[in-house]
Design a protein that fits this description.
alpha+beta, four-stranded mixed β-sheet, 7 strands
Length: 275
């Protein structure tokens, strides 16, 4: 599997216009098992009520059955379970928890798609990416402020970002690289699945459901085209001086997206942050 993913990464890196027409066959039982093993063992259960330890008892059999349902197009994504966690401003943040088998399949799909999109994403993007962290983003902010000719800082926070993503545009962006119908159908199931909130099934026409395993990658992909590519290809060429962007694709507290242009006044909350 790793060799095949390396080959996909190589092809994606060599040709940024290449469209991948057939990659779903790499979602094998072995890939699903690896995805299962990588999940948090103490994570909350979704609407299925199944936790890691319970599933682990017959993981081999259950994953084989999951693989068969996917290949036979009998797989159905289950509604998300909505919970709320408190925010620092006193409000509550909605989190949507998938069923365990949805997590497994999403995790395997993320691993597959990362082989492609990690070749496209710009270095300025730090959120939810392999080998990158919030601390790396803060270190880059400090490096730019301390070592580059800085004029000013612009900080932007996208309010309710995960819930505001336009799904139709997101699918169009995915299709620039991935044209595999099986993968697109899976993503369509996950972004359009409803949410169980206090016993009611709720649906919406926008958003990707913060809390799903697939959502961080989709959120990064959306901002890659909407923001990062625009900044790199359009904004920089129109400016007389240097311009830098540092982005962490999440709108939760202390993980705000940062956009830096010629800064001279270091934002002390970043330089002194324990994170």
């Amino acid at each position: 599997m790793s060799t095949k993913l390396e080959r996909i990464s190589e092809l994606a890196r060599e040709n940024r216009e290449l469209e991948f027409l057939s990659i779903a066959h790499l979602l094998t039982p072995e890939a699903l098992m690896e995805a299962f093993k990588s999940l948090r063992k103490d994570a909350s259960a979704g609407v299925d009520g199944v936790i890691y330890g319970e599933y682990q008892k017959e993981a081999g059999k259950k994953i084989q059955e999951l693989d068969e349902r996917v290949k036979a197009k009998r797989y159905r994504a289950q509604p998300l379970r909505r919970i709320y966690i408190p925010k620092e401003n006193g409000k509550q943040r909605p989190i949507s928890i998938p069923a365990l088998e949805d997590k497994i399949l999403q995790k395997a799909t993320v691993t597959l798609l990362n082989a492609i999109y990690e070749q496209d994403f710009y270095p300025c993007s730090y959120g939810f990416r392999p080998g990158k962290s919030q601390q790396d983003a803060l270190n880059e902010v400090g490096r730019i402020i301390c070592r580059r000719p800085i004029g000013w800082v612009l900080e932007a926070d996208i309010s309710g970002y995960f819930d505001a993503i336009v799904r139709e545009r997101l699918v169009e962006m995915i299709e620039r690289r991935v044209k595999d119908g099986s993968i697109l159908r899976l993503i369509g199931k996950w972004i359009n699945v409803g949410v169980i909130d206090e016993g009611r099934l709720l649906t919406s026409k926008t958003g990707v459901g913060q809390g799903q395993v697939i959502s961080p990658l989709l959120a990064n992909l959306y901002l890659h085209y909407v923001l990062d590519e625009w900044f790199e290809q359009e904004v920089k060429s129109r400016l007389r001086g240097e311009a830098h962007e540092v982005r962490f694709a999440d709108d939760c507290a202390r993980r705000k997206p940062l956009f830096l242009w010629d800064e001279r006044s270091p934002p002390r909350e970043y330089l002194n942050s324990p994170e």
